[in-house]
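job 3f2a | input accepted
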Amino acid sequence: MKFIIKNGLSSKYAPINSRDSLLLSLHNKMVDGVMLNLNFTKDKEIVIYHNDNIFNKEIKKLTLEDIKKYNLGNRVKRHQVISLKEALELFKDSNKILIFNLSDYGSDNLLFSQYLTYLVRDYPNIYIQSSSQDMLSNLKNYQINAKLGTNFENEVDGMQFYTISNFSFRKPYLEEMNNYLKIDKDDKFFLFDEIDSDKLIEFKETFPELEDYIYICSSKFFHNKRDWWKIK
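job 3f2a | predicted structure (232 res):
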């Protein structure tokens, strides 16, 4: 199993998505990677934030300079939204996994894909998931240096991984997962995103041999890796 922390580790003085949050994730040996949501600004910069709105303002209508004026922290310590370029710089000498969750940016999909492909060109541990077939198609055409994935229920060929959520988890999928992983097994995996503990246990008990092909993604952090099977 690999363990992915959603939006970065947080503490009293390190809010999620902040530079300090990413540094906490980077230096924690129990964390194999971080999942981050990416947003496109008005001036076409890519920033890290878990929502497409910040303080009731649409990120796509704000410039990077505008966004950096917002304080994600508190009066004791100020934290800014950081750009993808800044985040990549932190992880450049690390073997940690970075998973980027992409939305559909409408008419900006092509430009976003081009810029993202350029930014991650020198990073080996980039994983990208999206429910937008247009976005995934663009990234494949640009031969982005990243593993691509989507929701398991999406019928998109050529993906390296699929995401399973509580909403999409179905018992009939278990056999499908097993068949999927029999093909080019070493280059494929499933990302379980905030899955209930009973479903994780069911999967583990049904396919114990597939444990190494499971990535568990959660906003919760546990100090014992085995406890990740007991997420509630």
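job 3f2a | Helices lie at 19-27, 64-67, 84-91, 109-119, 133-141, 173-181, 197-206.
job 3f2a | closed
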